[in-house]
Amino acid sequence: AIQMTQSPSSLSASLGDRVTMTCRASHGIRDDLGWYQHKPGKAPKLLIYSASTLQSGVPSRFSGSGSGTNFTLTISSLQAEDFATYFCLQDNTYPYTFGQGTKLEIK
Amino acid sequence: EVQLAESGGGLVQPGGSLRLSCAASGFTFRSSWMHWVRQAPGKGLVWLSRISVDGDRTRYADSVKGRFTVSRDNAKNTLYLQMNSLKAEDTAVYYCAREMVTDTLFDYWGQGTLVTVSA
User: Fold this and answer.
1) What pLDDT, in 10s, does the model give residues B44-59?
2) How far apart are CA A5 and CA A90, in angstroms?
């Protein structure tokens, strides 16, 4: 199975900060990667698909980049509603696999 | 509005069985490939299973192959996961998710249902 290594596991930041988190795949997955936001007790929300395509309705402060094995999610200016856990998902090869998540907390 | 609502979770003894349901609304369920994913307490997400639009093609993670069966009833807009021979390590929140039309990623998820396997 393709292993997805996500870092950091947690991140403290302030409102207005720019934050970046990464996922690294153990094998090349082209751009077959998505980023999700997950809040406790809620359904995960798709932010980015195909590594860099913003899902409809998602604010433009979210952006994704990368291809092959290295991927990045950037939030350009943190808003209060952005504090959550973020995870990546590769859909290149079965079994689909997930990053372990990055918990974004208020500093 | 697309909605997915899991149900059927609860406490079950090791070796027991449980059937989860995922009620879909707000979209054409019969046109969507569907998946199950789970998250054990304090652990990461794990993909479990996928089913095609008409239910004739299924796929499973090795950890559940032979024990879990995914199915669907398009007339009832409902996805199922039959779980047999449950083990303590199957304790998790179980999510259903819809595969995108234009990609094989998931665009909508349910909120999950908790399954606890314990004596």
Assistant:
1) 999 999 999 999 999 9
2) 11
Residues of A in contact with B42 (CB under 8 A): none
Cα–Cα dist B105/B97, whole Å: 9
Closest to A3 (Cα-Cα) out of A103, A97, A81: A97
Structure tokens at B103: 């990609």
What the block records as the tokens of B98 is 């819809």
Interface of A with B (CB under 8 A): 32, 34, 41-46, 49-50, 55, 87, 89, 91, 94-101
Q: pLDDT per residue over A25-47, tens digit each?
A: 999 999 999 999 999 999 999 99
Instruction: Give B56-82 pLDDT, tens digit per residue.
Output: 999 999 999 999 999 999 999 999 999
Token digits of residue B96: 């259903």
Residue A103: name the closest of A16, A33, A35, A7 by CA.
A7
Measured distance CA(B87)–CA(A72) in Å, rounded = 36
Of B103, B109, B111, the CB nearest to A50: B103
